[in-house]
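Sample 3 of the quickstart, ligand protoporphyrin IX containing FE:
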Amino acid sequence: MSWFKRTLNSSIGGKLIVAVTGLGLVGFIIAHLSGNLLIFVGREALAEYAEGLRKFPAILWALRIGLVGMAVAHIGFTIKLNLANKAARPVGYAKKTYRRATLASRTMVLSGLTLLAYIVYHLLHFTWRTTDAEIAALGPYEVYDMLIIGFSSPAISAFYIIATVLLGMHLSHGISSVFQTLGINNPKYNKLFRCLGPALGTVLALGFITIPVAVMTGFVTR
Ligand code: HEM
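Result:
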């Protein structure tokens, strides 16, 4: 077996792939939030951004394929590692003790699976525009109006907010774990590494939540 295949099949190789693809997905989330926050600049800024994204279709498709590849590897290797863990301990612990485990760390699989379901709905809602006739009738760059129509429904806004809280929790534990997986360990900075996940997870989740809240409260209007 080649070195590459051996590494892929090892538990540390799998953890490395989950960590590195997770970091790549965080990069997308930061870029995606930055683009969407242009709603606070105005209709034209958001339209220009949407138009800019489509100016170079080859680059857009390369990024999309990379994004899907990272998501598939992230989820696939997480499932593989979980199954291997279960196989190594078929009986399980007599009593689960969660001495230092946070809620975010205990719910990684649940928050990850809910996020997956959310992303499928989100793509149908805003990328393929198949869930709402009013959104489907908009032009390709009328993203400002699309967000206002989309978040005018309290049920849809509530769903986005709940999913975003789960995203924040998932990132909070995920980002902190990356340092451990990559072996970045320095007693001087470990406390900072542990805080970085919850801090970034909270900032990103709050950033996304401002958008449905701004529409629901009438801060952003048509
Ligand atoms: C309030 C929160 C959010 C808003 C307002 C928002 C808005 C949008 C919009 C407008 C699009 C369509 C872009 C276009 O076709 O021009 C989009 C696509 C997308 N969003 Fe979001 N989004 C939000 C949260 C998220 C989150 C939390 C994730 C991931 C965890 C996410 C992942 C995606 C993906 C993967 C696409 C498809 C990108 C592509 O077509 O290449 N979004 N989003």
